[in-house]
Amino acid sequence: MIDISFIDFLRDLTNPHLDFLARAVGISLIAAIVCGVVGCYVVLRGMAFIGDAVSHAVFPGLAIAFALQTSVLLGGAVAGAVVAVLIAAFSQRNHVRADSIIGIFFAAAFALGMVIISRTDGYSASLTSFLFGSLTGVSRTDITVAASVGLVVLAVVVAFSPQLNTTCLDRETARAMGLPVFALDIILYLCATAAVVISVSTIGNILVLSLLITPAATARLLTANLTTMMFLSAIIGAVCSFFGIYLAWAIDLPAGATIVLTLTVLFLIVWALHPFLRSRRNPGHSSPRVPANASENTPRKETIES
């Protein structure tokens, strides 16, 4: 039962005694927008597993930062970046499949994080916060760092969008054009890492994959235009995050889980309406087209406009 009306929730956001709530909403909106944009590339590349790997890879960094009483955002970013680069490097060789490499690294990273945090005093409450998020665990410094990192990630995506689009839709064509595919892979992995790190505070390490994947997958059902898909994905993530925190606050539920369920419900609604929406979609647009089923091993014939 909803005990707090939406109007009361808006009032609570301006209450100085509940400033942690406004901070939680702020970092959730930042994370949703960044994850929404980066998540489009993750979805189109069939990289949901790499998103899961990155979300687990940041855990040892979070644990080390907690043990040293330093910024968990910085610790998570460093750990995630290291694992992302290792995955990109090992995946360039054909001796072992990329999904196997990802599985090895994300399991090892998560296990390392568990070992580190288990040796730290008072780890139980912090472990719960790391894994499932916390409305009260967001500081003003976290907001500043998340906003700064988010702006950098969005700037990188804009700056490299033609190259990322080409690599995302047709890697063989990208190689034939002389594009540095390996370097672009690292850029994308690092952007995904940054998006995950700034999302951990409110949604948690376990559930962060949903914020990276679900808005983009929902937007993919609504459009075949890559630019529009990114815009819709960011909006969907932001709206569902805001509404999810409202429900969590009003019904006394875990914020991260409520955000994920809100995103999932919207995805299911759009998925159910997709045949009707597709029949009414205007087919006249021709700039960046995205494939219905993009994956690393699927040949792509789509072209995109710079």
Describe the protein.
With 306 residues, the protein is mostly helical. Helices cover 75% and strands 0% of the residues. Helix 3 packs antiparallel against helix 11 (208-222) and helix 6 (123-132) packs across helix 10 (181-203). The protein has one domain (6-280): Orthogonal Bundle (ABC transporter involved in vitamin B12 uptake, BtuC), CATH 1.10.3470.10. It has 13 helices and no strands.
Summarize the structure.
The chain has helices at 6-13, 19-44, 48-68, 72-90, 98-118, 123-132, 140-159, 161-169, 171-176, 181-203, 208-222, 226-251, 255-280. With 306 residues, the chain is mostly helical.
What descriptors fit this protein?
mainly alpha, disordered C terminus, 306 residues, globular, ABC transporter involved in vitamin B12 uptake, BtuC
Residue windows where pLDDT falls under 50 for at least 5 positions: 293-306
Quote the average pLDDT: 80
Strand tally: 0
Series of secondary-structure elements, N-terminal to C-terminal: HHHHHHHHHHHHH
Biggest sheet overview: none
Subcellular location: Cell membrane; Membrane
Pfam family, one: ABC-3
GO cellular component, one term: ATP-binding cassette (ABC) transporter complex
Transmembrane segments: 20-44, 64-89, 101-118, 138-160, 181-200, 206-223, 230-249, 255-273
Question: Could you give the topology of this structure?
Answer:
Layout: H1 6-13, H2 19-44, H3 48-68, H4 72-90, H5 98-118, H6 123-132, H7 140-159, H8 161-169, H9 171-176, H10 181-203, H11 208-222, H12 226-251, H13 255-280
